[in-house]
Amino acid sequence: MNNATFETGTAVLRGGQVKAIRLVGLAGLIGGVLLIITGLVVWIAITSQLRAEEIVIPDDAIAFQGQIVGDPLTAYVQADIINHHALEMSGGKTYAELDREDPVRATVMNASFLRASLFTSVVSYGIAVFAAGVGALFLLFGWALRAIVPALPRETKS
Model-level pTM greater than 0.85? Predict the structure, then answer.
């Protein structure tokens, strides 16, 4: 058992406490790296799946006309224009407001499903960024813990 102490200015840490704090710092560093990598992998996966669909934003969209959907902004714009077209087609009525026998109802339902899918990708991008951001904080906290509590000197055997 190591009973060496380390003074931090106002606190005295025992050897076991130093090891525990440094271990938590290391866990923060490892967790941070894993969260950043996970966020990047998710971002890339969503982007490749959206681009594979080759959805082209129409000319009457509010932005990004003619571009292929492949990021959160273009996915949001595409969802918005789908809603605009569906409402235009249905006379301003949503799927739930249309009569069950209305022939436009199936098209409006498909538009609703497409919008939901696009919004799911927008939310997924947000979660990927959140994971990477939390990972960056973990890295900083882990680094800070290890920086303010240096390792104990190794004991030499005589």
Answer: no
